[in-house]
Amino acid sequence: MVKIKDTVKEQDPYIPGRSIKEIVEQYGLDKDEIIKLGSNENPLGTSPRAVEAVKNEAKFMYRYPESDLKELTKDVAAYSGVSPEQVILGGDGADEILDILGKTLIEPGDEFIVPIPSYMYYEFTLKIHGGVPIYANWDMPENVLNVGSVLESITPRTRIIFLCTPNNPTGALIDRRDILTILENTDALVVVDEAYFEFSGVNNVDLISKYDNLFILRTFSKILGLAGMRIGYGISNPQFIEYMKRVKPVFSLTRLSQIAASASINDQEYIEKSTALSIESREYLYREISKIPELDVYASKANYLLVDIRKTEMTSKLMSEELLKEGIIVRDCSSFRGLDDYWIRVSVGTMEEDEKFIDMIRKIVK
Ligand SMILES: Cc1ncc(COP(=O)(O)O)c(C=O)c1O
C-alpha cells in the first residue's frame, strides 16, 4: 500500500443533508412528493433566466471555461458593492474557497478557531491541510457567540477565525461590535461567513476597506438558487485575493456555472421574490412550531430554523426517520459538533410544503 497522508487517514467523514434520490430508494417514495427541507436551498427553485442562459450555452460545453472570469467577477463586485480586485470566485461553491484559504494560509500544526456549533465544512477542509481546530463557544440557549471564548482561543499559531453570521445551524447573527473586537485583537484572517446574509438584511462588507485581515465568504447556493452548480465567492483586500488566485484551480468554475451565475445575480425580480418568500416561510414556520409545546424553536435570521426536540423524548435520528417515512427531509443535527442528539434544522419551503410539514410534525409529536 502506498503511504497515505496522516491527515487523510484521520479524516472524519463529512455528513451532508440527505438527497432526494437516497430517500426515494430507501423508502420507495414518489420523488415528486418529497419535501426537501434539509439543505437550506431556495424554495422558489432556479431563476428562469439562469435556466434559459444554460440552455443557450449548452452547445459550447466542448470548450474550456473562461479562466479569468472577468464578467462574473464584475457582476459579483457590483452586487456586493466592492471592486473586482476584491473578489475571488470558487467553482465548488464557497466550499472551494475554504479549500483555497487552507492552501494559502495553513501549514501543518497551524490553528483555526471555530465557535461551535457552526458549519462543519470549515474543519473538514482545513484539517486536510494540517490545520488544528480550536473550538470556541456559541452559547445555547442564549444563541449568541461567546466572544470571550474566541479571544481566549487565540495563540501565535492562529491563522483563521471563523465567524458565521447568520450562524448555521443556530440562525442568529453575530453582533457587529463582537466582529470588530475580534478583528482588532488578532492578526489572523477573520472569515465572516455570510452565506445567508440576504435573509438577514445585514452584511459587513463595508469593513473590508478598514481591516486587511477580514475575509467575507458567500455563495450562490442559497438566495441565488444555484446549489447544484457549485459557485461561491470571497471578498477581501486585493493583495490577499491575488495570493489566493495563485493557488486556485484554474478551470474549476464550469462554463455552465458561470453563465447561470451571471443570469441569476442579475435577476433582480427573482432575488426579491426569493427573499420575500423565504422570510414569509421562515416567520410562518417559527410561529407554527412555537405553538407546539414539545418543541423549542429558535428565532432565525437565515432561511432555516433550529429546533430543540428533547421534550418529545425522541432523538433527532428517530424524528428525522419518522418524517422521512412521510417524504419530508429535515436535517438531523447530531453530526454538528457542539450539539447533542436532540436537535433538528428545518429549511424554509414553499407555503404549501411548510403547511404539510407542520401537520406532519404535529402528528409525530403527539
Ligand atoms: C454557513 C455556510 N457556509 C458555506 C456553505 C457552502 O456553500 P456552497 O459550498 O454550497 O457554496 C454553506 C452551505 O450550506 C453554509 O451553510
Q: Averaged pLDDT, please?
A: 96
Question: Low-confidence parts, pLDDT < 50 over ≥5 residues?
Answer: none
What does the oligomeric state look like here?
Answer: single chain
Could you state the CATH homologous superfamily of the largest domain? Type I PLP-dependent aspartate aminotransferase-like (Major domain)
Shape: globular
- The end-to-end distance, rounded to whole angstroms, is 54 Å
CATH architecture of the largest domain: 3-Layer(aba) Sandwich
Outline the biggest β-sheet. Answer: 8 strands, mixed
Q: How does the helix and strand content classify structurally?
A: alpha/beta
The portion of residues assigned to helices is: 25-40%
Number of strands: 13
- Counting structural domains, the number is 2
What spatial order of strands do you see in the largest sheet? 2-9-8-7-6-3-4-5
* CATH class descriptor name of the largest domain: Alpha Beta
Order of helices and strands: HHEHHEHEHEEHEHEEEHHHEEHEEH
Short synopsis of the structure:
By secondary structure, the chain is an alpha/beta fold. It folds into 2 domains: 6-45 and 269-365, Aspartate Aminotransferase, domain 1, CATH 3.90.1150; 48-267, Type I PLP-dependent aspartate aminotransferase-like (Major domain) (Aspartate Aminotransferase, domain 2, 3-Layer(aba) Sandwich), CATH 3.40.640.10.
Per-chain topology:
Elements: H1 6-9, H2 20-27, E1 35-37, H3 48-57, H4 70-80, E2 87-92, H5 93-105, E3 111-116, H6 121-128, E4 132-139, E5 144-145, H7 147-153, E6 158-164, H8 176-184, E7 189-193, E8 214-219, E9 232-235, H9 238-247, H10 255-265, H11 268-290, E10 296-297, E11 304-308, H12 316-325, E12 328-332, E13 343-347, H13 351-365
Parallel strand pairs: 1-12, 3-4, 3-6, 6-7, 7-8
Antiparallel strand pairs: 2-9, 4-5, 8-9, 10-11, 11-13, 12-13
Helix pairs in contact: 3-10, 4-10, 5-6, 5-9, 11-13
Bound molecules: pyridoxal-5'-phosphate.
Pyridoxal-5'-phosphate binds at residues 40, 93-95, 119, 164, 168, 193, 195, 219, 221, 227, 232.
